[in-house]
Structures are given as C-alpha cells and as structure tokens.
Amino acid sequence: MNSPDRLALSDVDADVSNPLFPALNVQKAAFLKQGAPSYQRRLDNLRRLRASIVSHKDAIVESVEADFGHRSLHETLLADVVGLLGEIRHNRKNLRRWMKPKKAHGSLQFPFAKARVIYQPKGVVGVIGAWNVPVLLTLSPMIGAITAGNRVMIKTSEFCPKTAEVIKSIVAQAFDEDEVLVINGGPDTAADFTALPFDHIIFTGSTQIGKKVMSAASKHLTPVTLELGGKSPTIIAEDYPLDLAAQRIVQGKMLNAGQACIAPDYLFVKTEQKQQMVDALTQALEASYPNYAENKDLTWVVNDRHYSRLKAHVEDARAKGAKVIELNPGNKEIPADSRIFPLTVLLDVTDEMTVMQEEIFGPVLPLKTYEKIEEAIDYVNIHPHPLALYHFDYNRGRTEQVLQNTLSGGACVNDVLVHVMHEGLSFGGVGTSGIGSYNGDDGFKTFSHQKSVLHQGRISLQGLNRPPYGKGMQRFIDFAIKYL
Predict the structure, then answer these.
(1) Is residue 155 helix, strand or coil?
(2) In this structure, are strands 180-183 and 410-413 parallel, antiparallel, or unpaired?
(3) Residue 8 within any structural domain of the chain
(4) Are residues 237 and 255 in the same domain?
(5) Does 468 reside within a domain?
(6) Residues 222 and 238 occupy one common structural domain
(7) Domain of 128: which CATH number?
(8) Separation CA 345–CA 322 (nearest Å)
C-alpha cells in the first residue's frame, strides 16, 4: 500500500513542483490505502458536517455580512445554512438506495449472464467555490462528493476572504485533512489548484473562468462539471396576471441583489403590456422593500468592482437609446458609502448594449416585448443556451411550446429560481451555461464511477461465435439483421 510520503499519483504529467501537490498526494494515498468508505462511514461524514455547519451558523452570518458590506440575515440563513442542511438530510435519506448496485436489463445475446452497474468513488475531487452564495456553492458540491465516497480538496473564492476562513473552520471541525481540505488564496493559488491532476473537478462561476478551468483539466484528462451562468430569460404570457408575475420576479431578481447565476436576466412581455409590467414591478418592489435605502432585507452588491460594472451597463444602455427607470421605494437618497443598487428597469434595449451581451448578475432588468410568443422563442434560440428559463402561463399547450422549442439547463413555470431547491431535480447547464449536473441523485452519480459488470454464466452463446466461422454463423447473422 502507498503511504502519504510516497507518490500516490499515477499521472506521469503531474507537476510535483506545484505547491499544492503534496496535499493532493496525501489524499490520493489515503484513498488508495483505505478504499471506498462504507455506508456507515459516509453517514457519519454527513452527520459531522451537519453538526459543524450548525455550530458555525452565527460565524457564517457574520462573515458573509462582512464580506458583502451588508447581506440580508435571512437570505444568508436560508441559503447558506438551511439549504445545506436540507441537502444533507436528503442525501442521508437516500444514500443506501444510491449505493446499491443496479441490475441491468437482460440481453438476448446473453440469456445466461447477469449484468449490473456498481458505483465507486472516483478518488479525490477538486471543488472550486463561488463568491455569490459562498458557503452553499462551496459546500454543496462537496456534499455530493463525500456522499459518493470521495476525498475532497476545496478552493474558496478570494472575493469573500472572511467567509473562506469560516468555511475552512467548518471543514476542519468535521474532517481530517486527508479527507477534506480547504485551501484559501488568490488567483495564483487558484491556478495551482486547477493544474492538479484531480479525479474530478467541479467549478461554479463565470463562463470565461470555466473555459480556463476546463483547459487546465484537459492536460490530465480530468472530467469536469462546470456550473456557469448566462442570460436566463423570463417569458410572460399575455393573459397571465402581471401583478403575480411581478411579485415572483422581484423576489427572484432581488434575492442576493440579483447576484445569482439563475436570476431572471431579462423579461419578455406583450408589446401593449410594457407599461403595465413596469407598474407591476414598481408595486411589487415597494411591497417587499419599503424604504429601499435603509432596508435591512436588502443585500448589497459584493464589491466596488461589481458595483461599477453594473453602473457601466446602465450608462452604456442609456447612451445607446434605452429608457432607464430606477425604482427606489421611499425615494430616499441612497448613502454614498453603501453598495445599494436600485432595481433598474431598462426599456427599448438592443443587442448592441453590453447589458444584453453579458450576464448581468445584479438588480438590472431589461424588458423586451413581443407580438407573438414565437418571437420570444426565436430570440432565446439564436443566443447562447441559458442556465435557466422561466415561463409564466396557465395555458399548458403554450407552455409546452416554449419548453419543447427552447434549450436551457433547467426551467421553471410560473415562478423563478425555486426549481433548484427541489432535491429530486438535477442542476446544471447546457452549452456555454455549463457541463454536467449535480444535486441529489445526479450529484451522487456525477462523483461516482458507474462500473458496468457482466457475470458470464456456465452456459454461454458466445461459444457459437468463435472461428472458424461457417454457414451456421452466416445464417445467424442473416437472421439477426432481419429480426433484431
């Protein structure tokens, strides 16, 4: 058996000068020595992680608040604590069923054989976390990886340094370093991390950085799961109640100040309903966030760079002919030392504007119009596939028309965002919005090797296939071509 001080990596291209290489080698060696953890061990891992998250809940709230400048207390608790606890509970409940080998369907060619699929951990999984929901989007992939029996190395986001330290503390309380290890640091550390020959890498973040991660992983033929983003459209049917649609859209768009990969990115409404939609959005925002400038439930934009980026999008749109409507319930002046960004609705937008070319990731909401629903479908289809698509409609036929004729990572009907909370649904993108998926059952499968196994019987028809071939074999082939 390999010991941690010996080379446990079989990749001949591994760069042993990489400062993170020894840590990976320790985990690889431990995995080779101890093998796949038992069902009971995996349950215990999840139990210890749950206990550590609960004991750190106050530290999570304080650190995220510090990194964002201000973040809604309840948003942090719901997303970064309750969301993780729900995922752990779901995995514990279903783990035994997931681990059980699956019997394969019978085959006419192998009537006396038995076939099955067994699930094995891949080894060491590299998790690259995101800053926007920093605890959830760092530990959620890890939950899937350890449920599947892997060891994990985590690279946290440098944009949330205080939260990164809390994540490190959560993991250190629950696991030894040869089981799960958190690595904090900046871009140079991230580059070293992605250069390691992991057995699987999962990255959550922008498409631009996702391409770099995939390029680095390709040097070792490391499989990747990329959870990226894109411009998620929202299409509202002409006869759907606009006030209800606006309530749900505002709730989804303003969650975490719109800093979510599946936030509604732009709206489609019937042409004559444009002003009605603006009015409905205004009323919905006033109901949820009265006194906008001093609202404790409002999350700030994470840093000055992203705040300036959003400002630049709005000014670019204004300069190119868009009508800019800033919604600020209470009409109080927003403090200059804050990063509170008003929900900004943009009318008459065009594809020449940067706001329609890049993922917005903030409380800016372009509003487009259509005469026929097919126009909205066509617009979605000639642009990169989104991570999510939202459709508000009570007409099932029209809904199916939208769903069947568009391609997106996921979709939600008559609401936004909430489809990712359903443990039975996978989460992932398509095309530029992502590769692969995780969450629940799909997370277990993503981080497992699904080994196909055939047990040949004492009697085997394959004996009839051995040369020298003759007329009997030709008759069998002719029969198979005709009837199979």
Answers:
(1) strand
(2) unpaired
(3) no
(4) yes
(5) no
(6) no
(7) 3.40.605.10
(8) 10
Q: Could you tell me if 137 and 157 are in contact, meaning their C-beta atoms sit under 8 angstroms apart?
A: no
**pTM score over 0.85:** yes
- Per the CB < 8 A criterion, the answer to whether 365 and 253 are in contact is yes
Q: How many CA atoms lie within 13 A of 483 on its CB side?
A: 7
**Largest distance between two CA atoms of the chain:** 91
Using N-to-C axis directions, what is the helix angle for 39-55 and 83-99, rounded to 10°? 180
Tell me if 131 is assigned to some domain: yes
Examine the residue annotation and report whether 315 is marked as an active-site residue of this protein.
no
Q: Which residues pair with 365 in a beta bridge?
A: 345
Q: How far is CA 44 from the centre of its chain?
A: 25
Is-catalytic flag, 261?
A: yes
Alpha carbon dihedral 422, 423, 429, 434, in 10-degree steps, equals 140
CB atoms within 10 A of CB 103: 10
Kindly give the confidence (pLDDT) of every residue in the chain, 484 residues in length, as a single tens digit, with 9 standing for 90 and above: 344 444 555 555 678 899 999 999 999 999 999 999 999 999 999 999 999 999 999 999 999 999 999 999 999 999 999 999 999 999 999 999 999 999 988 887 778 888 999 999 999 999 999 999 999 999 999 999 999 999 999 999 999 999 999 999 999 999 999 999 999 999 999 999 999 999 999 999 999 999 999 999 999 999 999 999 899 999 999 999 999 999 999 999 999 999 999 999 999 999 999 999 999 999 999 999 999 998 999 999 999 999 999 999 999 999 999 999 999 998 899 998 899 999 999 999 999 999 999 999 999 999 999 999 999 999 999 999 999 999 999 999 999 999 999 999 999 999 999 999 888 888 999 999 999 988 878 889 999 999 999 888 787 767 667 788 888 788 888 888 988 7
In a domain? residue 198: yes
How many independent structural domains does the chain possess?
A: 2
Tell me which of 65, 87, 227, 359 is the catalytic residue. 227
Residues 211 and 245 in one domain: no
Rg (CA), the chain: 26
Q: How many CB atoms lie within 10 A of CB 336?
A: 5
Q: Say yes or no: 405 and 441 in one domain.
A: no
DSSP sequence for 294-363: G-TTPPPPSSHHHHHHHHHHHHHHHHTT-EEEEE-TT-PPPPTTS----EEEEES--TTSGGGTS---SS
d(CA 111, CA 134): 52
